[in-house]
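Let's study my pick:
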Amino acid sequence: MDEPTTYLDMAHQLEVLELLQRLNKEEERTIIMVLHDLNQAARFADYIIALKDGEIVKSGDCETIMQPDVLRDVFHIDAEIGRDPRTNRPICLTYNLLQGEKQNEKVDSTAYFNARTY
């Protein structure tokens, strides 16, 4: 699925992701999707692939991917990572562009978080 939560409000995003999670768990369906929301990917994905310019930067579970160095390499951001109190998974609390980043440089044009749940 290509960004199934785009243009949806927060409640509907959660409904879609929880539905996909149920399909995965109850009907043993493999779900592959592209998400640009890091926190959604960390919350719902069992496996994440971080891409930049069409190349894999890192892949693994959310603990492996939601690291400041990985987010720096993929998105050119300085991220603070904490724990989601409901899921105990990593969550990006806040972030800044790295110093020296050009205003008109495309940072996120080909960086994806592909979320695949088992």
Notes: The radius of gyration is 14 Å. The chain has one domain: 10-117. The first helix runs from residue 10 to 26. The chain is about 30% helix and 30% strand.
